[in-house]
């Protein structure tokens, strides 16, 4: 049996690879578990480089998952957003954001083919050599290099303008929250970029806009309507790290329903707001610990 310690040393990295490829917390958890089962079945000392081997195994699993996931997402009601990764507070010792795990970038990656997405994530984010990626997607090294190049070009063209400064990001989120809770339309307009985009994922299970809302006036009105739906007597607001960036979780004490807000910020203005209300995508959250 392969060594448990070798696997545990790679567990966090494997989950990070899986989440970025699939955009799903549940799929990432399942992929790590499946990788462990395959690793456990190996004879001891059979693998010379556990890191490379395990990365290849979990990437293949996730690559296969993407095919069926794309079919499910094509039939999805309204915008499909990744399952958010939420943590209390955030890594305060860091001053910049991890763009590779941001919801805005993961949403752009949804527009790539499974092979392009896998090649981009493995090479550009995790520095996996092209020959190893070729084993994952069943292509030649030259083909994989082209896949990553196409994906990189599309990401550069379609990813939103976004600051990597954590303080700037947090100030914009705080201003948004105060304006919404205070019903201050003018303050909302001041913090929203003129071309801001609001995407809400209800999955057909919770009321949500089924197409993106674009423009600061439309988004401000939409945010105000949502704010008026909160009951101050039962509402709890958590300032959390949502996919490594300052975000918000608003929960109801009575029924446990929650809304997760993720933001993109550029030059002090909010350029994108992703709102996840589909309860299936929030089941993994440990709300009491936030």
UniProtKB/TrEMBL annotation:
Keyword Metal-binding found: no
Pfam families in alphabetical order: Sigma70_r2, Sigma70_r4_2, SnoaL_2
CDD domains: Sigma70_r4 (cd06171)
Domain RNA polymerase sigma-70 region stretches: 8-69
Domain (RNA polymerase sigma factor 70 region 4 type): residue spans on this chain: 104-154
Domain SnoaL-like: 173-272
Family matches, as InterPro entries: ECF_Sigma-70_Domain, NTF2-like_dom_sf, RNA_pol_sigma-70_dom, RNA_pol_sigma70_r2, RNA_pol_sigma70_r4_t2, RNA_pol_sigma_r2, RNA_pol_sigma_r3/r4-like, SnoaL-like
Lineage: superkingdom: Bacteria
Signal peptide positions (record): none
Entry annotated with the keyword Transcription regulation: yes
NCBIfam families referenced in this protein's UniProt entry, alphabetically: PRK09636.1, sigma70-ECF
Subunit description: Interacts transiently with the RNA polymerase catalytic core formed by RpoA, RpoB, RpoC and RpoZ (2 alpha, 1 beta, 1 beta' and 1 omega subunit) to form the RNA polymerase holoenzyme that can initiate transcription.
Family: Belongs to the sigma-70 factor family. ECF subfamily.
Protein name: RNA polymerase sigma factor SigJ
Native source species: Streptomyces mordarskii
């Amino acid at each position: 049996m392969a060594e448990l310690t070798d696997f545990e040393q790679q567990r966090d990295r494997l989950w990070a690879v899986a989440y970025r490829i699939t955009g799903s917390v549940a799929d990432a958890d399942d992929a790590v578990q499946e990788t462990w089962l395959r690793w456990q079945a190996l004879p001891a000392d059979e693998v010379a480089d556990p890191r490379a081997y395990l990365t290849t195994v979990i990437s293949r699993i996730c690559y296969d998952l993407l095919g069926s996931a794309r079919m499910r997402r094509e039939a999805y009601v309204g915008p499909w957003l990744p399952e958010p990764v939420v943590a209390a507070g955030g890594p305060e010792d860091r001053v910049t954001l991890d763009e590779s795990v941001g919801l805005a970038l993961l949403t752009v990656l949804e527009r790539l083919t499974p092979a392009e997405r896998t090649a981009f994530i493995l090479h550009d984010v995790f520095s996996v050599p092209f020959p190893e990626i070729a084993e994952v997607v069943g292509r030649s090294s030259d083909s994989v290099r082209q896949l990553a190049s196409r994906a990189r070009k599309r990401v550069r063209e379609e990813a939103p303008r976004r600051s990597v400064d954590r303080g700037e990001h947090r100030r914009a989120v705080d201003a948004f929250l105060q304006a919404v809770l205070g019903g201050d339309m003018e303050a909302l307009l001041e913090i929203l970029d003129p071309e801001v985009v609001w995407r809400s994922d209800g999955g057909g299970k919770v009321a949500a806009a089924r197409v993106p809302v674009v423009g600061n006036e439309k988004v401000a009105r939409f945010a105000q309507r949502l704010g008026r739906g909160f009951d101050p007597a039962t509402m709890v607001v958590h300032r959390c790290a949502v996919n490594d960036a300052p975000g918000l979780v608003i929960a109801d004490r009575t029924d446990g329903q929650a809304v997760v807000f993720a933001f993109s910020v550029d030059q002090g203005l909010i350029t994108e707001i992703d709102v996840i209300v589909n309860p299936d995508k929030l089941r993994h959250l440990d709300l009491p610990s936030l």
